[in-house]
Fold this sequence. Notes:
Layout: no helix or strand
Amino acid sequence: xxxxxxxxxxxxxxxxxxxxxxxxxxxxxxxxxxxxxxxxxxxxxxxxxxxxxxxxxxxxxxxxxxxxxxxxxxxxxxxxxxxxxxxxxxxxxxxxxxxxxxxxxxxxxxxxxxxxxxxxxxxxxxxxxxxxxxxxxxxxxxxxxxxxxxxxxxxxxxxxxxxxxxxxxxxxxxxxxxxxxxxxxxxxxxxxxxxxxxxxxxxxxxxxxxxxxxxxxxxxxxxxxxxxxxxxxxxxxxxxxxxxxxxxxxxxxxxxxxxxxxxxxxxxxxxxxxxxxxxxxxxxxxxxxxxxxxxxxxxxxxxxxxxxxx
Length: 310
C-alpha cells in the first residue's frame, strides 16, 4: 500500500492518478485535481479535500470518515460502499454520483448538490441535509432516521421504503416523489410540499403535517394514526383504506378527497372542508365533525356512531 502521510499535496495535479488502496489519512489535498483518479479502497480518513476536484473519480470502498470535503466536486464519482461518516460535505457537488451502500451517518451535507444521485441502501441516520438539492435522487431503502432535511428539495425522487423516522422535514419539497412503503413516523413535515407524491402503504403515524400541501397525493392504505394535519391542503387526495384514527384534520381542505373505506375513528374534522369528497364505507365513529362542510359528499355506508356534528 502506497503511503503519503504528512505530505503536502494541496493544489496538486493528480488527474487520473492510480491511488488504489493508498494511505492518504489526514493528508492535505485541498484544491487538488483528482478528477478521474482511482482511489478505490483508499484511506482518506480525516483528509483535507476542501475544494478538491474528484469528478468521475473511483472512490468505491474508500474510507473518507471525518474528511473535509467542503465545496468539493464529486460530480459523477463512484462512492459505492464508501465510508463518509462524520465527514463535512457542506456545499459539495455530488450530482449523478453513485453512493449505493455507502455510510454517511452524522455527515454534514448542508447545501449539497445531489441531483439524480444514486443513494440506495445508504446509512444516513442523523445526517444534515439542510437545503440540499436531491431532485430526482434515488434513496430507496436508505436510512435517514433523525436526519435534518429542512428546506431540502427531493422533488421527483425515489424514496421507496426509505426510513425517515423522527426526521426534520419542515419546508421540504417532496412533490412527485415515490414514497411507497416509506417510514415517516414521528417526522416533522410542517409546511412541506407533497403534491402528487405517492405515499401508498407509508407509515405516517404521529407525523406532523400541519399546513402541508398534499394536493392530488396518493396515500392508499397509509397509516396516519395520530397524525396532525391541521389546516393541511388535501384537495383531491386518495386515502382509500387509510387509517386516520385520532388524526387531527381540523380546518383541513379535503375537498374531492377519496376517503372510501378509510378509518377516521375519533378523528378531529372540526371545520374541515369535505365537499364533494368520497366517504363511502368510511368509519367516522366518535369523529368530531363540528362545522365540517359535507356538501356534495358521498356518504354511502358511512359509520357515524357517536360522532359529533354541531
